[in-house]
Write a structure and sequence with these properties.
Layout: E1 4-6, E2 10-16, H1 22-32, H2 36-39, H3 43-49, E3 54-60, E4 66-74, E5 94-102, H4 111-120, E6 128-133, H5 139-144, E7 147-148, E8 155-157, E9 164-172, H6 173-182, H7 186-212, H8 215-222, H9 227-254, H10 258-271, H11 274-284, H12 289-294, H13 300-315, H14 324-334, H15 338-349, H16 361-370, H17 376-387, H18 391-411, H19 436-439, H20 442-449
Parallel strand pairs: 5-6
Antiparallel strand pairs: 1-2, 2-3, 3-4, 4-5, 6-9, 7-9, 8-9
Length: 452
């Protein structure tokens, strides 16, 4: 989480609950919400209640005065109660926002939209946002399109002269972020777009962590990945790599933007004949490359990645959404570390391969092609920063990245029954309950009885 975002007027800061900021935040609340003093009688008590979760603060650039603030945290940690019959909604998918405050003279200048947008992105995996309101016509309802949350209890503030009822409201985080972005002016969107770019990169970092924890790398390190499994991975990779130049050409043809078109053309030139690198690796391990090129049907994962590109480019005519594919794949390739490359070589060597690097050219070379300060991935980032400039586009791109990552994970985890064909004799395949309906046919049973 970046600590600050700036445009010409404002600065957005993210701060973990901290006593050092309490006085400033409470002064803002007392200035903007009359009943804040009534709800909590002690500044010290209020300070203690703000130590969980995050504060979002918006300041004036010129004098550093605090203009807006809100406190956000997971609902499971907040002082919010679900109705007894609906306790399940208080789970890891819900966040709670409280004590939103904005200086009166800035309420019509887009700060509320930016405040809401900024608080939701702290918890990107959460689906719902809940908050309590005294004014049922508050503009926060307008920008989030929130509805009364019957699943939660109202808050009654009774220890004052005129008791206050705070009504709970709920909204989906994704729709609230889209609506708030759409209601911002262009100056405010300067900050939001910086957040969009960081959110996309944060998503990639999460995928990189998952990729490095993939069982593929563990098996390489432990020398338990078999030659047949490795070949299966290379052949499945070949099926989408060989389609890359064609898909990039299609993306260039549909790109109205000159910069985007030139990006795809440049990328296409860099990708020409990369499938031949895989063919050399596969051939060196003794596999039938002619069958691979001319007859092997495309696997589901490779077909999914290729079809995604064809769909977003030609059917939906959104060539910028194809950026998800090179951005993710090259980001992952560029993250491959020297220790990973050493594991690949040593594992291949354990199979008795004389020159193991000759069977690992694709993985080794693409760590260099795609990583570094002048690698492909840096160019991907620059184009994403230009083209993915709305919340809607961000969410579309992230959804496409999900599809690509799941497909790639499937390729790197071949679903073969046996690690090696030599294990078939001892496998007792007919006792596998997962294969019961497939293999327990009369014919197979007959063969079994005859000792076949």
């Amino acid at each position: 989480m970046s600590q600050a975002y700036i445009n010409e007027e404002w600065k957005v800061e993210y701060v973990k609950g901290s006593l050092s900021l309490s006085e400033e935040i409470f002064s803002l609340r007392e200035e903007t919400f009359v009943n804040e003093k009534c709800i909590m009688n002690s500044r010290n008590v209020r300070a203690e209640s703000d130590q969980t979760g995050w504060h979002v603060l918006i300041r004036n650039i010129s004098d550093n005065i605090l203009l807006a603030a809100v406190h956000v945290l997971p609902a499971t940690l907040a002082d919010v109660e679900a109705n007894q019959s609906n306790n399940s909604i208080l789970n890891s998918s819900t966040i709670y926002a409280k004590r939103a405050a904005i200086k009166k003279q800035y309420r019509a200048k887009g700060l509320l939209q930016l405040l809401i947008y900024s608080l939701i992105r702290i918890y990107p995996e959460h689906e719902y946002l809940i908050f309590h309101l005294q004014d049922l016509n508050s503009p926060i309802r307008k920008f989030t399109k929130a509805i009364p949350a019957t699943e939660f209890k109202s808050k009654i503030i009774e220890d004052i002269d005129n008791p206050i009822e705070l009504t709970p409201f709920i909204t989906r985080t994704e729709s609230a972020m889209v609506n708030c972005f759409d209601k911002m002016d262009e100056n405010t969107r300067v900050i939001a777009r910086k957040m969009i770019f960081d959110d996309i990169n944060a998503k990639l970092e999460g995928y990189i962590d998952d990729f490095h924890c993939h069982n593929f790398w563990t098996k390489l390190k432990n020398h338990t990945l078999t030659k047949n499994e490795y070949l299966s991975i290379l052949m499945d990779m070949h099926q989408y790599v060989r389609m890359t130049t064609r898909t990039l050409a299609l993306a260039a043809a549909y790109s109205e933007s000159r910069d985007l078109r030139n990006f795809y053309i440049h990328h296409l030139k860099e990708e020409v004949d990369h499938e031949k690198i895989l063919e050399a690796d596969i051939s060196y391990l003794g596999e039938d490359v002619d069958y691979l090129i001319h007859s092997r049907p495309m696997c589901k994962a490779a077909r999914t990645i290729t079809s995604l590109g064809e769909s977003v480019i030609s059917y939906r005519q959104q060539p910028e959404m194809y950026l998800a594919v090179p951005f993710l794949l090259e980001g992952l390739a560029g993250s491959i570390e020297e220790s990973h490359l050493s594991s690949i070589v040593s594992c291949i060597k354990s199979w008795g391969v004389k020159s193991p690097r000759k069977a690992a050219n694709m993985l080794i070379s693409h760590a260099g092609f795609d990583g570094g300060h002048d690698g492909h991935h840096l160019l991907d980032q620059k184009m994403i920063q230009v083209e993915i400039n709305t919340e809607r586009k961000k969410r579309e791109l992230l959804a496409n990245m999900d599809i690509v990552f799941l497909s790639l994970s499937e390729i790197f985890d071949p679903k073969s029954i046996f690690n090696d064909i030599s294990q078939v004799e001892d496998a007792n395949i007919l006792s596998n309950p997962l294969l019961e309906n497939v293999y327990q046919t009369p014919e197979v049973t007959l063969f079994q009885n005859q000792g076949v």
